[in-house]
Amino acid sequence: MPVFDRDASEDSGGRDALPKLPVPNLKDTLDMYLRCMKHLLTEEQFNKTQNIVTQFGAPGGVGELLQSKLTERSENVANWVYDYWLNDMYLNNRLALPVNSSPAMVFPQQNFMAPIDSLRFAAHLISGVLEYKTHLDDRDLPVDYARGQLAGTRLCMEQYYRLFTSYRLPGPERDTLVAQESSVMPEPEHIIVACKNQFFVLDVMINFRQLNQRDLLTQLEKIVKMADNEEEQLPPIGLLTSDGRTEWAESRSVLMRESTNRDSLDMIERCLCLVCLDDASGPELSDTKRAMLMLHGGGLTKNGGNRWYDKPMQFIVGADGCCGVVCEHSAFEGIVLVQCTEYLLKCMIGSPSKLVRAASVSELPAPRRLRWKCTPEIHKLITSAADKLQRMVKNLDINVHKFHDYGKGFIKKQKMSPDAYIQLALQLGFYRCHGRPVSTYESASLRRFQQGRVDNIRSATPEAFAFVKAMTERKNSTSDTEMMELLKGAITAQTSYTRLALTGMAIDNHLLGLREIAHEMKMGKLEMFKDEAYLISNQFILSTSQVPTTVEMFCCYGPVVPNGYGACYNPQSDHIIFSVSSFHESQQTCSAEFVKCLAQGLRDVRDLCNKCNADCAATEERKGQTQKAHTQTETKWEEKSLQRPSDLTKNKQTVPQVLVKTTDQSSVEAETQTLPHGEAQPLSKISKS
């Protein structure tokens, strides 16, 4: 059992212990908005936007009215942006969940020598899930504290308690995030196991006793045998959950007409999680291949139907050792997923499998296959969903790249933030690929506040643009020192904006809140939010996220716009793992080309740092030599001053002019040194003593 390395707390990060999310100043947000957008727009676009923003923020204008209403809202709810953000980011989105919304964590490749090995792995994993769930139920999960910027700040823990108790219910226009409460309905005591596109109920509590690993293995073996029975096999209903959200809502309504289907849906929606026992997917299992299989299952011909995407946690255990977890993102952020999965993997690594014990005392009842009544209409809907998933499989262009030249260790030696540095490298890679800056999204956690989720760090800063443009179009007139100053300026700007976002002072959530308040007040769509600049600002062609781990695994997800990139990175001490995604259908993007430009950019920035470090070291060495030469001269002069007048007469010497001030008053350089012979020599010819 892994040992928690975080401090425990009585209230486990209770909501009341944290401050409320502040409402930023209106003028600050509007000024920052213009600053963020100016270099992303044409001069004509910017002039128009500037006039619109000025009018919006004018004294006594609509902006001030909306700001006052937003401030009023903040006083009456725990988190003024939570519902607005959840709907805008996830629940209103009509795109299919796989690739477009649901990220995946890819576990280390497992070496299963026999079919039973994958089932042992699954049993061990489920045992860890039950152990972790016990910590959640007992509310004794230690509180998280912030790392990096503003380290040590207590964080909100609410997202953890949605890991195994929530469900995303599809709706025709907006989905619903359903959170199960024990006071309303009984706690789930079962897991759904998917095998060969069939779904089985695995009760984890039988006769008031939690199943041990041997029990779990026994039940999993039964499930595999049941799934192999071709006479009992049912259509791949899970494919419907991979469809667009409106389409899936309509298909679910059709399913709900039959009581058998209603019962099966209820069992899935109330389960702890899914465990998907996948068939082998082919001989080549590169990191890139495994990432693709985690995101979409490989389509109907592989394991695409062996999923239920509405459930927050789907653990994938492939017969070929391709394992990981796919998460429905509306319930929690990536760091919560990481903490949970790291606990599970450490649990499995740190404690041996407990399968050598005696068999169960009593015979376990067989797991139950979920039944479905499928009309011709449902068969047609499944076929349609399968076709769309297959197009998505063909469309996804993903490239997982392990950059081994250096990692965050080198970056820290430069006294720079690894995250800010990597974000700048992403900007450089994109600019070299496409010759322009674009709106960029990097998630910043707001868990310092009650019900905190995330806001956006706008990494495409004017300072970043100045640096990447200079690096790409470098002219002989731009010195390394000037390039280094641009680099440092861009790092500082990124770090400063990150701090704004972490403290609730970024612009995206604030503008969203103002827009939604206007909607609630039935103001119609204001010019501010119809403006082309606002649309461009929310087209995140570069969607990025840092997902660091302490266990060997990595995160991946798809782009958020058709002509964009998803770029997830995991910085380690001596390497960085990048997972870059795009769509083949876009003529503007290519994941392999972007990765190539990104890697070269990282090498170029490193070379710039090393060159400037070497120049600084040489300068410091010259300073040291100057000081030493100065000291030696003064010492010899003092010695000669103590000689008798007759000795001074005998040894006629002239006092050399040793020190010469350069134009930089902070540095002093020795040009000559008086030797014992009284002959002046250039400093470069003097050996070190």
From TrEMBL:
Homology family: Belongs to the carnitine/choline acetyltransferase family.
Residue span(s) of domain Choline/carnitine acyltransferase: 21-600
Residues forming the catalytic site: H329
One annotated GO biological process: locomotory behavior
Organism whose genome encodes this protein: Haplochromis burtoni (Burton's mouthbrooder)
Entry function: Catalyzes the reversible synthesis of acetylcholine (ACh) from acetyl CoA and choline at cholinergic synapses.
GO cellular component: cytoplasm; neuron projection; synapse
Cross-referenced Pfam families: Carn_acyltransf
Ranges of compositional bias, category Basic and acidic residues: 1-18, 631-650
Catalytic reaction annotation: choline + acetyl-CoA = acetylcholine + CoA
Top-rank taxon, per record: Eukaryota
Keyword Membrane in record: no
Molecular function via GO: choline O-acetyltransferase activity
Record-given protein name: Choline O-acetyltransferase
